[in-house]
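Write out structure tokens for Reverse transcriptase Ty1/copia-type domain-containing protein.
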Amino acid sequence: MSLYNPHENKVIISTYAVYDENKAWQWNNLLDKQVEGGAGTFTVQWDDSQTIAPDQPPNTGPVPTATEQEQPTDQAQTAGNSSSSHATDSPAGPEIGPNDEVNHVRRSTRVSVLPRRLNDYELDVDHLMLTSDEEPRNYNEAKTNKEWVKAMRAEIDSIEKNNTWKLVHPPTDVKPIGLRWLFKIKRNPNGSIIRYKARLVAKGYVQEQGIDFDEVFAPVARLETIRLLIALAAAKGWKIHHLDVKTAFLYGELKEEVYVSQPEGFEKRGEERKIYKLAKALYGLRQSPRAWNLKLDDTLKNMGFQRCLQENAVYKKVSNGDFIIIAVYVDDLFVTGTSLEFINQFKRRMASQFEMSDLGELTCYLGIEVTQDTDCVKVKQECFAKKILKVAGMQDCNPTQCPIEPGLKLTKAADEPEVEATHYRKLVGCLRYLVHTRPDLAYSVGVVSRYMQSPRESHARAIKQILRYLRGTTSFGIKYERCKDLKLLGYSDSSHNVDIDDGRSTTGHVFYLGNSPITWCSQKQDTVALSSCEAEFMAATAAACQAIWLRELLAELTGMKKQKVLIRIDNKSAIALSKNPVFHGRSKHIHTRYHFIRERVENEQVMVEHVSGDKQRADPLTKALGHTRFAEMRSLLGVQELPSTQTFRG
């Protein structure tokens, strides 16, 4: 260490020093004096008085008391082998003078040996990204790994093979859009790696509507439509196949002139000042999804497919008594139909138009695990559920029997301490996606979703209750069985005045195709209901809207005659109000839009029927139930345990 003596204008270099912390430095006196010898003139003195010869053993005497370090300051830090970690709260000991002998702390002469359990670890940098679950955040982190370099080269080759861009001199007054690399490890539901995927994307957030693009909307298949198709395929015994279009957005043709910079790490040598003019769409551009959708729509129509009126992302083709149904979610194609040969013919034609990945029979779709057996199709999100528990740090928590305790009253309480809002919203978002295969979670997740703006401790405890329930039910899902009777059946229910903050009721409904649930809803109503009859009436109207859509979509997909949809309600007053304008005094204030169900009943598109409360399958979608009651209703709802039996492709 180096110590400066301002009185003698010397710098002393020593391996050991003792500080007198009981004396204060006289800063005022120092500032009043000029240092003799001028700035930068000083003498360096080496202090070898404490040097230990290499062959001399270290002093093994007692350790000096470190009570002087009780109140460390900016200029008082223990040097050498003495550490501030030895400081205690005991009273100050005797003062150590400059001439007093101070003993060193003994240093161990034992040779350190690496534990045997660490001998099998590979710690070289080349394998760091391969053994880590984290994807690289930028090009600099990815360029040192051969797998990511290979993925980036494949992306560039796809772009150039498709004639997506052309290198040109930058036009006057044109600022090119920047590019960046995104990296993702694609995995099977069991966690095994499928491939390393690098995507070159444009920074489309700098584009302005009306200047750089016009329309951006591109339809995708709703997950409730996917569940309907799965139920239909299971009932008919059809197989479901999965196709993926590689670099799908690169096939979309642009109408606007778009310029982008050269990608990082792949600049053309000697032409670094040039930029690319896009002929086709690139990931990240605002208009890219629509451009790809228009290209795919035109291709499918040329093959003889017709777009469904009720679902613009679903296509159907009929030929010689066989038909095939396609559901599109960006670049993922859900394919099912009556004939395997018809499906294979479609695959060959698609492969001639685009670069495709034939993933065979569907096993995983948008994170949903699918198991196809001879007599049923099972869907669940076990892997995703375990991931949620890991993110929340509750993978080892004690499970509970219901997601929300009966009688729990949550409010927007301002007197409770706030919790970290970002983490709360992240968990709620994950749970909401899990509801796509778990209707038993719909009500509890809907309740905690109301407090994302300013979550409090009571709301966080409610989420922990849901996660504890999830811990014991990660393998639960829905089984779609084979059946002959393809009838739509709905259940509608409501809970009156359950929200303490605004007094609104909760709507719940679930629809079945055969014996399998295909759509469900748990949602707070838009207005305050003055009675349970009014709340049930508004819930029935919402169910009727869903019933009409399902009725039209099913008829369009199958060619069957449009059927009357039965909706079961456990409130007789609401049933009477749905059929006739009775109870005028109690219903005259209800908005006209809620009388939609009465018109549909009169037109014989919907039929309402009474069901007892103990058989009301929508009951767990509207309120918290006790453990025994909840388990019974969960079974009626169609949620059951689905043990893992499938081996996923790696």
